Amino acid sequence: MAKLYFHYSTMNAGKSTVLLQASHNYRERGMQTYLLTARFDNRAGDSKIASRIGISCQADTFDAQSDLFAQIQTRITQDPVACVFIDEAQFLSEDQVWQLARAVDDLDVPIMCYGLRVDFLGKLFPGSAALLALSDEMREVRTICHCGKKATMVVRQDASGNTLQEGAQVQIGGNESYVSLCRRHWREAMEDPATSTATKDISSARAG
Q1: 3 state SS of 193
Q2: Which of 66, 91, 110, 190 is the right S-S partner for 38, CB 3.0 to 4.6 Å?
Q3: What is the rounded distance in angstroms from the CA atom of residue 80 to the CA atom of residue 1?
C-alpha cells in the first residue's frame, strides 16, 4: 500500500544524497521514479537535484502555484512510476502537501519527501509542519553537532561567523553560512539567557 513519507533533518545532513541513492535503487531494478524539486532552488542548475558529494539527477520542478496532484497524475499516465521523490519539501505549501496525500491515496503511488524540519530561528517551515501532520511515516536523516550529540537545529551566520538572530526564513544557497547544532548549543549560539545562567550555575557548583 502506498504511503506518504517525510525524511527530515537539519542542513548538510545528506538528504539529497539519500534521495538520489533511493531513486537509483529503484531504477537499478528497472522501475521508473519521478523526481521533483523547488523551482527557485537552482544551486545545482535548473531542474536538477544534486548532493554535496557530487552526484546529481535531472528533476521536474514545483513552485507556489503548482498543482502537484495534477502534475503527478500527468506523469504517471505517460509512463508507470514506482515512486515519487520530492527534494526541498520544506518549501511546499500546506495545500500542496494535501495534494501529495491525495496522490498517495487516489493514485496509489508512494511519495518520499525530503526537507528541513525547522529554520534557523527554530520554527517549523509550513511545508514541514503539514508533512509532520499528514505523513504516514517519518524518518530522520541524522547529522551531528560539534560536541558529538545529534544535531536537531541550525544557525545562520554572516560572513564574519556571527550568528544571525533575525532574517527571512528562506535563503537559497550559501550552505556554508549554516551550522547544524544540538539544541543546547543552538541555544548558546542564539544567546538564550537561560542557557548562559544554567551554564554559570553548573560551573559554580562544580567549583564549590
Answers
A1: helix
A2: 91
A3: 16
H/E stretch holding 75 reads helix 68-78
pLDDT for 128-180, tens place per residue? 999 999 999 999 998 899 999 999 999 988 877 788 877 666 665 556 678 89
How far lies 29's CA from each of 16, 33, 82, 103, 200, in Å?
20, 11, 11, 23, 57
Phi, psi angle pair for 70, to nearest 5°: -65, -40
C-alpha torsion sign, points 88, 93, 94, 95: negative
pLDDT digits (tens, 9 = 90+) for 100-110: 999 999 999 99
- In angstroms, the CA 186 to CA 39 distance is 30
Q: Please say if 88 is a catalytic residue.
A: yes
Cα atoms in the 13 Å half-sphere on the side-chain side of 176: 3
**Domains of the chain, each with CATH number or no CATH:** 4-203 (3.40.50.300)
